[in-house]
Amino acid sequence: MGHAAPRWLYVSACGLVAIIIVGSFLFSPKREIGDCVGTVYFTWGGNLTHNCDSRSIAKDAENPRGYVADSSPWRTRPVYVFSLGAISLVTVHLAAPIERLMTTIDESRTSTVPIAALARYGHVYAAGFIFNGLVLWLAIYLGHRSFRFSRFGQVAGLIALWCASDLVAGWFWVTHSIFVNLLIPVGGLSAFLLGTAIARQSAVRMTLWGLLQSLAALTYGFALIWPILTGLGALWAIASWRLRYREVSRAFFCFALAFYLPIAAWVGSYLFGGLTLAHEIDCCGQFSWLPRALDGGDVVAEAFRQATLIARNTAKHLNWPGAVVAAMLLAALVFYFRGAERKHG
Q1: Which residues sit opposite 37 in a β-bridge?
Q2: Mean pLDDT of 279-289
């Protein structure tokens, strides 16, 4: 009987698959969209997409005090901005290689991108690439954990599926929080599975999960779907296994409180200070519709209007109703195969 490969070799091989696929996108053709999305061409054959939002994100990450005090369109994503700021404290020491890379830009072809901004915030852009790498790793890890793959071929297939997606191809080499979307479906699956196992979770563990999901929501707003899926998973568990409310109430209360407090602290510090968090509040009433509805006395109508607006916008941009259904179907498959393993094991 053959011996299993050492774990370090297994992990290294999986990482190599991801690096090769993601690295190849440096040489793939890019799209240019208006004045906002341009392409940076290098003399050695590579190219990067530059999004006009990246400059303002980099500015906020480099100056966190200004980000907190001044008007910023990224106020609802503090964890992302502060994370880039923290990573850039390390990448700022890579100034020499970044400067050498800048000298290889083909200025004759790079006509729609402000090269001066690239040089000014190059270390923050590098921090964004590192952050995207961590997001990609976490997405692969959550997928591996949810399906419990044990063979290299299975894990390599999962890595190829993730890395070759349009989101990775288009956004991995871009400093923008939109790349966090890669985590939303697989994170939703993990959140749903967490809810189904709530009876086996301690209050401390659910508190940590609530805190993590709260930080995720403060990184990118679509992560707000995770606590909803956790709640749906808990309801499924209660209905399927006839759990008593007292058996799960403490754990779920700790989860809900840990999720709510960080968001309330960040959002409340602006709303009660008379400031707006971002353009989402101005155009959609995000985070502020409930106080307004309470003042007007028509909470039910306002809640229905907001729910309709959210559903329409998410369906328009990312087809999230379909993603939720897909996540729940995947969760059902996971339960089925796990049950089959236990039955025949």
Answers
A1: 33, 51
A2: 56
- Residue carrying the six token digits 């999720």: 259
Residue 212 C-beta-side C-alpha neighbours within 13 Å: 14
Q: Cβ atoms within 10 A of the Cβ of 323, count?
A: 18
Return the higher-pLDDT residue of 256 and 147: 256
pLDDT in tens, 202-246: 889 999 999 999 999 899 888 888 988 888 888 888 877 766 767
CA dihedral angle for residue 99, residue 34, residue 162, residue 332, rounded to 10 degrees: 150
Q: Of 10, 332, 330, 12, which Cα lies nearest the Cα of 142?
A: 330
| Alpha-carbon span 308 to 20, nearest angstrom | 42
The answer to whether residues 283 and 88 touch, using CB atoms and an 8 Å cutoff, is no
Q: Which two tokens stand for residue 303?
A: 């809640």
Confidence of residue 332 (pLDDT cuts 50, 70, 90): low
Q: Treating both helix axes as pointing N-terminal to C-terminal, what angle do 320-344 and 225-241 enclose, rounded to 10 degrees?
A: 40
Among candidates 168, 227, 237, which has minimal Cα distance to 199? Answer: 237
Distance of alpha carbon 308 from alpha carbon 200, whole angstroms: 35
Q: How many residues does the chain have?
A: 345
- pLDDT band of residue 2 (cuts 50, 70, 90) is very low
Half-sphere exposure of 170 (CA within 13 A, CB side): 14
